């Protein structure tokens, strides 16, 4: 996605940058559409200009949202940043690290007592969001961190999304339980009010055919080209005919430089706090709901 306020965010599917369509900017929100593919893993790669992280702005707080529900929250100081998983607590209390992938959205055609009725979720199905706040350098460790509860998967009635361009949702993959998860997180001092992030990147996704039908993906971009191929004939002489070859005009794929993994050694300034290693990689996570006195 184009740089916005000194920050760019790309969505990568299986390691390749997804092509973005109808990119728009409205205030702090940058929105685009991408083609989602069932069972494909995806991740986000952020690049922050050095001018953005300077002066009183020494770190960024980030929240990852999918289908209207928050998955995880992080704080970091790097200019290249990779978000490729989340840590959640399931219904049994187990904390797991999970990868993210696209899944076909399943609907029901009859009423269910537990069907999804929350409009803030129904309106955000098929939507991914990266929310970013500017924050001060200092971060205080807290021992009362609460992992995000695993998002609910209530049945979606087909009438609830009738007429909407929705075919896929986000699901978890490659889940691994974290043994003895730490309760440590970090409190940060945001410069921007929590209700109004500095920048929000919104990716709306659906199948190629649906986005074509909606006029979001121009059909001519994906049109097949024709090639003249000479064919030998058993009869005297030669004749030619047009044979359509499948050679889609694919967009150029550009890989971002590999960013630092979340939780890298220089993510939180020295001194490091003991007891924070609760998985194979350390991560700086913050309590989004808590603010220091005097924050906006």
TrEMBL record:
Domain DUF7918, chain residue ranges per copy: 6-219
Basic and acidic residues compositional bias, start-end: 286-296
Pfam families, alphabetized: DUF7918
Renumbered residue ranges of the record's region Disordered: 228-296
PANTHER family to which the protein is assigned, alphabetical: BETA-LACTAMASE-TYPE TRANSPEPTIDASE FOLD DOMAIN CONTAINING PROTEIN, TRANSCRIPTION ELONGATION FACTOR EAF N-TERMINAL DOMAIN-CONTAINING PROTEIN
UniProt protein name: DUF7918 domain-containing protein
InterPro entries for the chain: DUF7918
């Amino acid at each position: 996605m184009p740089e916005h306020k000194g920050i760019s965010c790309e969505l990568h599917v299986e390691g390749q940058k997804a092509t973005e369509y109808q990119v728009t900017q409205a205030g702090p929100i940058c929105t685009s559409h991408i083609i989602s593919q069932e069972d494909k893993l995806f991740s986000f790669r952020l690049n922050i200009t050095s001018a953005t992280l300077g002066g009183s702005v020494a770190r960024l707080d980030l929240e990852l949202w999918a289908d209207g529900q928050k998955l995880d929250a992080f704080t970091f100081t790097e200019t290249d940043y990779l978000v490729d998983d989340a840590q959640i607590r399931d219904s049994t209390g187990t904390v797991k690290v999970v990868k993210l992938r696209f899944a076909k959205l399943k609907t029901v055609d009859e009423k269910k007592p537990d069907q999804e009725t929350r409009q803030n979720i129904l309106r955000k199905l098929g939507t991914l969001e990266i929310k970013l706040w500017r924050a001060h350098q200092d971060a205080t460790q807290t021992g009362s961190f609460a992992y995000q509860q695993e998002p609910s998967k209530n049945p979606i009635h087909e009438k609830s999304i009738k007429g909407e361009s929705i075919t896929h949702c986000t699901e978890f993959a490659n889940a691994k339980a974290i043994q003895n998860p730490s309760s440590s997180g970090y409190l940060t001092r945001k410069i921007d009010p929590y209700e109004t992030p500095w920048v929000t990147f919104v990716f709306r996704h659906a199948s190629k055919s649906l986005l074509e039908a909606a006029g979001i993906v121009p059909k001519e971009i994906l049109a097949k080209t024709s090639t003249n191929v000479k064919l030998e004939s058993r009869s005297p002489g030669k004749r030619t005919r047009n044979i359509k070859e499948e050679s889609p005009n694919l967009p150029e794929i550009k890989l971002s430089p590999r960013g630092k993994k979340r939780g890298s050694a220089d993510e939180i300034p020295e001194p490091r706090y003991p007891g924070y290693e609760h998985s194979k990689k350390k991560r700086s996570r913050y309590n989004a709901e808590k603010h220091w006195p005097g924050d906006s």
